[in-house]
Amino acid sequence: MRPITHTSAKQLIPVANKPVLFYGLEAIRDAGIREVGIIVGSTAPEIERAVGDGSQFGLDVTYLPQDAPRGLGHAVLIARDFLGEDDFVMYLGDNFVVGGISDAVQRFRREQPHAQLMLTRVKDPHAFGIAEMGPDGQVIGVEEKPRYPKSDLALVGVYVFSPAVHEAIAELKPSWRNELEITDAIQWLIDHGRRIESTIITGFWKDTGSLADMLEMNRFVLESLDSEVRGDVSADTEMTGRVVIGPGAVISGSRIVGPVVVGAGSIIRNSLLGPFTSVDCDCTIINSEIEQSIVLRGAFIDGVGGIEWSMIGREARLITGPRVPKTYRFVLGDHSEVRVSV
Question: Which of 2, 23, 62, 166 is the most exposed, having the fewest neighbouring CB atoms within 10 Å of its CB?
Fold first, then answer.
């Protein structure tokens, strides 16, 4: 996600104009959980400004500082006092799970294993933490990015643990990455006879670790939108498909092909927008064409056509430069023929 993540927390990049982290917090709330600890690092001030005390989500949020990225096991370690002896969900803030986590949490409460994993089938198991299943359906092994995967079931970034995991983490040693790996903690539980259950999800899941992942998630969320126009759309603008226009947005002389979302206060003039594009608040797009893209807050685009599969950062300016005459230099052999597009 660089260079966007040089200046902003990846978890706060908006998808359909809502930060990725917010989808996770809403899923946690919908599962009946109210107390949330957020592990924060160098982007803590930005995360705290966005989430606040959690009341906007119906949550009570506590911030738990981590001095460096030392692994998911280390995140549980520093949250020990906050967690106490309670069962808990660990939800990676850049993950998106369609359908939420309520079913998995309810199953854990009902069956009370020592840990419950959420799994999904993937095409390339070498790139994920992978679970090995026994004949009875229980998890009998986990391995991080295996060279020779024993299944195609990847660990989704959502785990439900009993307090038994603290005993496992206390025994961990740093991996080759110098991190305390949560997969090692799960394997310790397995090796010590603890019961590990799993839920296999079949719906959409994304670990938003790349631009392609983010744009795919944006496409998926936009497809579920219901049309709503709260801004000012002129009579000479054509809109088709599902379109959401935020309050204070002004659109004129344009064609909007949904699904598209335009944030509050944005200006779209003489442009083609969409499909599968989200434009955040207070953006300006003039005499341009853009589709399959995410435009972040305050961006300015003028006179640029053919933009697709892109992410435009906050307050970025994308404008046309002076035209440079084309020149060609040839050394052609006898009887040559060259065709030049002009």
Answer: 2
